[in-house]
Amino acid sequence: MKVAVLSRNPNLYSTRRLKEAGEERGHEIDVVDTLHCYMDVTRSRPVVRCKGEALPFYDAVIPRIGASITFYGTAIVRQFEMMGTFCVNESVAITRSRDKLRSLQLLSRKDIGLPRTGFACKPDDIKDLIKNVGGAPVVVKLLEGTQGIGVVLADTQKAAESIIEAFMGLKANILVQEFIKEAGGADIRCFVIGSKVVAAMKRQGVEGEFRSNLHRGGTATLIRLTKEERATAVNAAKVMGLNVCGVDILQSDNGPVVMEVNSSPGLQGIESATGKNVAGMIYEFIESRASRSTRTRGKG
Ligand code: ADP
Ligand code: MG
């Protein structure tokens, strides 16, 4: 098969592994720089172009869209969908996953564990907003933050009020969330492909840090998931409509709760913690799906 990996940087571990693993399985892999692509939106003949030429027809596209280029990146993925190319994750699903509030709202409709979460616009709602998620300590989060940036722990009622006021004063969109203290600064990353968790790791934040992001210095170890954790991850991926994703779960006293679902999950941490060929498994999935006549529906 001919497969395009949409990525801004061919030297990133995840991009390199996707090229390598695809070639190992006998596919032809092009790494295509998302921002260098442009679109020809023409009646009945949608095309993606790059460096003066129309791109060849790909059997599948693996989107690796960074959070900073969501708008343009998802437009390119959508253009491939219009051409009938199988995209591993659909553009609408990627867009959905980038908004933490939208994601939690969608998950809340199904029976999936979530940290109690509030969202408001007007500052006079602040006290009730905090009370509603169980009172301080609470976690305050920027709606579109990544890598732990924009996630703040407010220990006391006063701190929570002033942090929320400050963010709102800056017109930032924020979530106020119950702090899952018993998670102990750790979370679980479940790597889902299709309807299976293919690998999982536990990430532990550095001493004194409640955020477990590897980008914040957290460390990853192998973990065996409970049945409930596994089902939670698979259901969350299904609700989001993502075929390949990282579902982040906190272990709370009330069972697993989903914190976020990442549509371009990194491969380095998970492959080194588990020793599994996760990139290869993405191709196994593509092989089973792209060859069928079921093309992505290309919803707007
Ligand atoms: P980002 O998108 O920046 O990674 P997350 O929502 O995943 O933001 O939060 C970053 C980290 O902070 C999580 O991996 C987790 O360790 C910690 N965290 C986030 N929300 C909570 C919460 N409600 N309770 C306890 N810890 C949390
Ligand atoms: Mg996270």
Could you describe the 3D structure shown?
This protein folds into 3 domains: 2-96 and 285-289, Rossmann fold (3-Layer(aba) Sandwich), CATH 3.40.50.20; 101-111 and 182-277, ATP-grasp fold, B domain (D-amino Acid Aminotransferase, Chain A, domain 1, 2-Layer Sandwich), CATH 3.30.470.20; 117-179, ATP-grasp fold, A domain (Dna Ligase, domain 1). Helices cover 32% and strands 27% of the residues. The protein is built from 9 helices and 16 strands. The protein has helices at 13-24, 70-82, 91-97, 100-109, 126-132, 157-169, 227-240, 268-274, 278-290; strands spanning 2-6, 28-32, 37-40, 47-50, 53-54, 60-63, 86-87, 117-119, 138-142, 151-154, 174-178, 186-193, 196-204, 219-222, 244-252, 255-262. The strands form 4 sheets. It has a 5-stranded antiparallel sheet, with helices on both faces. Strands 2-1-6-7 form a 4-stranded parallel sheet, sandwiched between helices. Strands 8-11-9-10 form a 4-stranded antiparallel sheet, sandwiched between helices. The relative contact order is 0.15. The structure holds adenosine-5'-diphosphate and magnesium ion (MG). The site of adenosine-5'-diphosphate has 23 residues, from strand 9, strand 11, strand 15 and strand 16.
